[in-house]
Amino acid sequence: MVQFLQSSVGIIHKSHAESIASFVKDNVVRELKEESEVPVMQPAKDRRITFCVEGNISVGKSTFLQKIANETVELRDLVEIVPEPVSKWQDVGPNHFNILGAFYAEPQRYAYTFQNYVFVTRLMQEKESCGGMKPLRLVERSIFSDRMVFVRAVHEANWLNGMELSIYDSWFDPVLSSLPGLIPDGFIYLRATPDTCHKRMMLRSRSEEGSVTLQYLQDLHEKHECWLLPSQHGDHRLLSASQLPYSMDHSLHPDIKDRVFYLEGSRVHSSIQKVPALVLDCEPNIDFSWDIEAKRKYALQVAKFFGFVKKLKEVSPSQNIDAKAKNPQILLPHSGGVFLHDGSHFSESGLKPLTL
């Protein structure tokens, strides 16, 4: 697999390729062992829920996770928080290379390297956090926002060329298929205007972000909106919760009824089709250290969304088959190819770039 990663995927350093190969191998062995010990279909009520918290740069994700998810009575005993691994991006290898800073300083040179490393660190993060005991896991961003927002943005800016995009996509689906834990049960979209995000970014003054422009934030905002919000132009890639069948809709609390949407359509990756998303308004500048009522209001919305998704899985078990049954298990590459659990060759379509 090391040779495959170096020759076909484009990972230059052998040590990086060996690390990825070892990680994938360990997970494949573990999941194959689990398949032999337990039925493929697990009762939905026995699985904990994972939400990915999405949003633009400086929208307030860290504040949301710390002040709302970690400090409120409604959520603190319910959730495990998995913050974005920014510290790993700022300190890579024995020479402590800051790949995040390098990307912002020279995006055309480091865009692919950075996005590649971001993907690897999310795999590592999944391995580290998958065994938690709390019923709700909140993960800051996901491989899907990486692909649908940030990779797309750097490609359109010509910082990531077509060949590099094809290489990225060629292992996105196979790795995702082997690690279904990367697929969340829902998304929480923290929404604010690019102007507001830009002002907050200036206030926090993270050294690497000095070169980030308002135009870049506007571009990222547009891509988040395109991915996570209903279209206003007739492209119904999302279904609002009000369009859900009555058997599902009755469990959605009125306070979030107009804030929950189902992702669906050609612009949404196949693995997250019909995954629900909760949209929270983060435009107001609220001091959550003092405004206890506002903090509680946000926490209650998340708690109600959690209850909705949990109930959804319990009442619709046939639609919530374990991802390992929906996504064929990927085995290690052999002779330059990728093979499925049954020995057949992986579909060529799975190695083509995602359609945006």
Automatic annotation (TrEMBL):
Naturally occurring in which organism (per UniProt): Panicum virgatum
Gene Ontology cellular-component annotations: cytoplasm
Official protein name in the record: Deoxynucleoside kinase domain-containing protein
Pfam families cross-referenced by the UniProt entry: dNK
Domain of life, source organism: Eukaryota
Entry-linked PANTHER family: DEOXYNUCLEOSIDE KINASE, DEOXYNUCLEOSIDE KINASE DOMAIN-CONTAINING PROTEIN
Deoxynucleoside kinase domain mapped to chain residues: 51-297
Molecular functions per Gene Ontology: deoxynucleoside kinase activity
InterPro entries, per database record: Deoxyribonucleoside_kinase (IPR050566), DNK_dom (IPR031314), P-loop_NTPase (IPR027417)
